[in-house]
Amino acid sequence: MPNMSAIVHPQQRHFNPYAENGGTILAIAGADFTVIAGDTRQSEGYSIQTRYAPKVFRLTDRAVLAVNGFAADGNMFVKKVKQRLEWYKHAHAKDMPLRAIARLIQTMLYAQRFFPYYVYNILGGIEEDGSGAVYSFDPVGSYEREACRAAGAAQSLVQPFLDNQIYFKNQTAAPGRSHPSHLPLPDVLSIVVDSFTSATERHIEVGDGLEIYIVLAKGRSLQGVEGLHGLRELSTQEDGERVFVLQRDLKKD
Amino acid sequence: MSQIWKYVRVTPSGGRVRGVPARSSTTSISLPGTPDHLSSQSTLILRFVMSIMEHNGGSVVAMAGKNCVAIACDLRLGAGAQTIATNFEKIFPVTDRMYLGLAGLASDVVTLREKFRYLTNMFLIKESRPLEPSTFAHLVSSTLYERRFGPYFCEPVLAGLERTPSGSYKPYIVGTDLIGCLNFAKDFIVTGTASDKLFGVAEGLWEPDLEPEDLFETISQTLMNAVDRDAYSGWGAVVHVITPDKVITRTLKGRMD
Amino acid sequence: MECSFALTGKDYVLVAADTTSARSIIKMKIDEDKIKTLSPHLLMAYSGEPGDTVQFAEYIERNIRLYHIRNLYPLRPQSAAAWIRRSLAESLRSRHPYSVNLLVGGFDTADQSPHLYWIDYLGTMATVPYAAHGYGSYFASSLLDRYHNPDGTLEEGLATLRRAIDETSKRLIVAPGKYMVKVVDKDGIREIEL
Predict the structure, then answer these.
(1) For chains A and B, what is the number of CB pairs under 8 angstroms?
(2) What percent of chain C has pLDDT over 70?
C-alpha cells in the first residue's frame, strides 16, 4: 500500500535559475574618449562572495563592455561576445566597429528572449568617426546610444547625480555662456570616482574595489591623466585606439 | 515597507472571494486548508494594489550647514499614478527656528501636522519656555511609537537650530521611520518616494560647513535632480533655509512630467 | 459608474454629480441628488460605497447645521472642509471605515472667495482649482487642466464643465446619463440646467 498522504497533498518543487549579484556599473562618453567603470564586489543577499570579481571587460582596442546583474550570465555573455568578435577578426582581418558590436549584442540578447541573460550591459568605446560613445542595453536587447549611463544596484543613486553633473540638468548657464556638451577627461574621472564613493557610502552591495577603463581615440594623448597612479595600458597597438585601466580602492564595509 | 495587497480568488463560475490570505507572492498557489476540488479548479490571483507609503508620492530632504539648516519638499499630491494637486506642501513650521517635513500617506501628513500643532501649543502653554528641536524630536518619536502596531504612514524629517548654553545656535536635523526610530545625522536626512535618488545625489553634492546661500543651492539641486527621476514626486518644490536671524523660503519651478 | 466634477471660477464654485443610483448592473434610480447643501454657501458632492455615502453625508449635513444653529453663523468653507476631512481620517482607522469620496465647494462670505476641496475616503484633502472623482476623472482632469480659467465667468465655467461631461459621455463605456449641476456664489446655492 503506497503512502496515500503523499498523493493527497501534492508538493511543489521549485528551481530559480537566476540570482542577483549586486554591484554597479557606469559609463560616460567624452568628445574623443570614453570612461567605463564598475565596482568589484560580488554579493548574494547579505553575503559577499568575493571582493574582486571584474564586471568591466576589454573587448577590443576600442570597445569595453560592462555587465551587471546575474554574474554567471554576465560572464557567459562576455565570453560569447568575445568569441563572436574573434570570429569576426578571423573573417575580416580587423576589429568589429563599436556600433556593430552594439547591434551584435542586441541580437545575442534578443536570441534569448524567452530565457534571457539576466544582465544589464553598458558598452563603451570609440566610434569609427573617433567620437566617444556609450551604448546601454536592457536584458532583452533594447539599446540606445547615450552620453552617460549608470546601471545596477545603485543606478537610482548614481543616475540622477550624473543627470546633474554630466547633462547639467536643473542648472542654468551664465548669461551668454552655454554648458559644454562633453567634459574633459580629468573632470569625468573625478565624477566617476565621486559617484562610486557615494554609492559605496549608501548602498550595501557596492564597494571593495573600483575598476575604471579609459578608451582613447586614435591620436589622442593621455594629456591630463598621464601621471595617474597605477594607470595600466591594455591596448595591443600603439597607433590605434588605446585602452587603459585604473584601479582604486572603495570602502570594504 | 508596509504594503497593502489585495487578494482576489477567481472561482470557475467567475464569482470572487475577497480577502483570502496568502503566504506566498507567487502568481498562482494553492490555498492552505482549501479542499482539493476547490484549489485545483480555482486560481488565486494576487493583484498588487500598492504600497501605502507610495500611494500619494512626495519626498522631503533636510541638510545641515554652517550655522544654518535647510529643508525642502516637492509639491505633488497623487492618488497612485494620477496627479490630484500640484500645491501640496509637506513642510510645516513648528517654531521660528524649526520646520517639520512629513512624507508618506497624505491623510496622515495632515493628521500629524494638526496633532503636532496641538502638542507644541500645549507644550508652550504648560511649560512657557521655548521648544527646542531635541525636545520636539522625542515628542515626534513617542507620538509615532504610540501607534506601534497601527502606525501613521509617515516618515518625518525635522530641521532646526538648537540653542546652546552659550546662547548661540547649532544645526539640528533628525529623521525617523514610521514608528518613531530617531536617526540623528550630521549631514542630511532624506525620506519619501525619491529617497534612494536623494541619497545618491545628496551624498555626491553635500559638503560640510556650507553657508546659507550655498546650502540653498545644494539642497535645491539635490531635490530637483532626485525628483526628476521619480514618477511619484515633483511638480515644483519649496525650500526653507533656517538661519539664526531669519528663515529664507523659496518656491522652485520644476518639470511638469 | 459614479462621476463627480467641480471647478472654481471668478467668485463661484460649480459642482456636478451624476444622478444615477445603481446596484450591480441595475439602475435603481436616475434622479438621485448626490450634492448636499451643508450651509447657505457650502456644497458637498459625495460618491462611493452605497449606504456609506448617504449615512456619512447626512451625518456631516446635520453637524454643520448644528454648528450654524448653535453659533448663529455657519462654518467657513476652510473650517468645514478640515472638519469633514478629520471625520473621514478618524473613520479610516475605526472598525467600519466610511468609503466616501467628496468634493466640497464653498463661497467664503467673509473674504468673498471661492474654495474647492478634493477629499477621498482616506482623509486626503487637497485644495484645488478643479477636481473630479470616479472614472470621469481620467477624462476630465486633462480637459480641466487645459481649459480651466480661475477668473472665468459662470458661462465660461459651465462651458468647461460641459466639455468634461461630454468627453466622459463620449469615451466612458459605463458613463452616467444625467448630471445635476449646482453653483455656489455670493447669492447662495442654486441648481443649474446644463
Answers:
(1) 56
(2) 100
Cα–Cα distances (Å) from A78 to A50, A115, A149, A176, A217, in that order, read 19, 17, 19, 46, 23
pLDDT band for A3, please (50, 70, 90 cuts). Answer: low
In this prediction, residues A173-178 reach a mean pLDDT of: 96
Residues C124, B106: C-beta atoms closer than 8 Å = yes
Give the confidence band of A1 by pLDDT, cuts at 50, 70, 90. Answer: low
Contacts of C61 (CB under 8 A, 6+ apart): C36, C37, C38, C44
Q: Do residues B254 and B228 make contact, with C-beta atoms less than 8 angstroms apart? A: yes
Please list, in sequence order, all residues whose beta carbon lies within 8 angstroms of the beta carbon of residue A234, skipping any fewer than 6 positions away: A58, A243, A244, A245
Closest-CA residue of C relative to B107 is C124
Closest-approach residue (CA) in chain C for B106 = C124
Q: Which residues contact C119 (CB under 8 A, 6 or more apart)?
A: C81, C84, C85, C88, C101, C102, C103, C104, C125, C126
Tens of pLDDT along B136-166? Answer: 999 999 999 999 999 999 999 999 999 999 9
Assess contact for C41 and C188: CB atoms under 8 A.
yes
Chain B residues with beta carbon closer than 8 angstroms to that of A162: none
Q: What is the DSSP string of C151-162?
A: T--HHHHHHHHH
Chains B and C touch (3+ CB pairs under 8 A): yes
B80: which chain C residues are within 8 Å (Cβ-Cβ)?
none
* Chain C nearest C-alpha distance from B87 (Å): 8
